[in-house]
From TrEMBL:
TPR repeats lie at residues 337-370, 371-404, 405-438. Pfam families: ANAPC8, TPR_11, TPR_8. This is Cdc23 domain-containing protein. Keywords: Cell cycle, Cell division, Mitosis, Repeat, TPR repeat, Ubl conjugation pathway. Residues 557-579 are annotated as: Disordered. It comes from Lupinus luteus (European yellow lupine). The keyword Repeat applies.
Amino acid sequence: MSSKDSCRSELRIAVRQLTDRCLYSASKWAAEQLVGIEQDPAKFTPTNTRFQRGSSSIRRKYRTHEIVTTPIAGVSYVATPVMEEDELVDGDFYLLAKSYFDCREYKRAAHVLRDQTGRKSVFLRCYALYLAGEKRKEEEMIELEGPLGKSDAVNGELVPLERELSTLRKNGTIDPFGLYLYGLVLKQKGSENLARTVLLESVNSYPWNWNAWTELRSLCTTVDALNSLNLNSHWMKDFFLASAYQELRMHNDCLSKYEYLLGTFGYSNYIQAQIAKAQYSLREFDQVEAIFEELLRNDPYRVEDMDMYSNVLYAKECFSALSYLAHRAFTIDKYRPESCCIIGNYYSLKGQHEKSVMYFRRALKLNKNYLSAWTLMGHEFVEMKNTPAAVDAYRRAVDIDPCDYRAWYGLGQAYEMMGMHFYALHYFKKSVFLQPSDSRLWIAMAQCYETEQLHMLEDAIKCYKRAANCNDREAIALHQLAKLHSELGRTEEAAFYYKKDLERMESEEREGPSMVEALLYLARYYKLQNKFEEAEVYCTRLLDYTGPERETAKSLLKGMRSNQSSFPSMDVEDFPPMS
């Protein structure tokens, strides 16, 4: 059997098993990867080519090298035996409990299975109790604090579940799904080390449960924690590592791993979306936009991840495209958090910040842990000059994810607006530690160092240098480096950076005050260095302007003519202003 056929066979069984245990999100993920496996061209039929159209263009465009191997080629593949199902002794009770579970009657489902001892029944009973506790916790939070408030409400089922699942694990009568649930309970109770161990046992014994991998990834907050995991060599491990690399901001490693997986899962929409996320973190907005456009052509009713697409359109100020996306999301499912964020971005781009906040609040009512909505709402409050509300929104974001550099950056901006520059610097340092490749963060920190309250110009210079090395798209760093060196009396360094800034402006065909400033400084610098030919070049360019810089250039040319008798004879009046 070929590797692709093996993956396909495993996933088909996994989809049935995960669905049977009511792990629907994991089942959906597995099914998406199943249809994402490249089909044998000889087996194509009009029905099974439905998902294949269009995707190959993305693969060709965004792969850095051609992948001809499959995820399980070249490694020691450890075959994981398919779980044996329980005998049908509990079948009728299980079917009834599953029906109650699907109707969200969790306590009722657990009650039906109270006397059943089969592993599948035990898992569904415990899982139903866990979700009943989560449902009651959400209700208490709304009753006590409102939908966006903080609350100390806890899942009341955690303690008895931990006791029962711990006993089952010690007795060796727990299955991989029970281990997953046990890990989930331990994580919520704060026992992260034991939770990591238990979840590791779960994924090694049953690697197709993506929910277990996701929980394990959330416990690997450092590279050392990730490297300490003793994972079996299964192709699901590559999906996990790619996802973990993304969370740890190892974007190039993440992209390499996903490109590797494309060798088998060449038409997986999930992988394409994850590649777009990594490219988004690297600020490759054109590539991200192309991927999302292709995803929408292949899956026109997709809402998942489309809020990130709206962020790209917002950053590129593509008003019509964002308007179309917002209308599309509203039509498909207006009560999805992603849809609310897309509409919020649309109103923000229109400058209607109050309406934008309303939709971000709606997203948070649907999912109070929706990180993107907290951060974007903070940005809107900054625009509205409501700094206390902005600080609160950003703090809620970092409470959910302490590694969200955008929220730390937002906190820095808010405190800077309040004139509290030492606090702002602290938060900018946090953001730049988490995302050292983003030039905007280095520039924000440099500008903070430049303020009168701090006036730490040497540190500002270091930050601007880092920004210049991080592809400063806004073209701020070089100009500020030139100005700071000039202010500190370092004429040679200032001339170096003015020249580099001038070259960049010329290559980008940009005009403006920064170009005039650079030309004036370089003309004066080269005149003082008695390099009259270079000085003449910059003065000549200044004569094309109509402001006071033209008169300054004339004065410099006359001064150089008087200092050097061999200076070419010319009438400065012969240089007409630029029309």
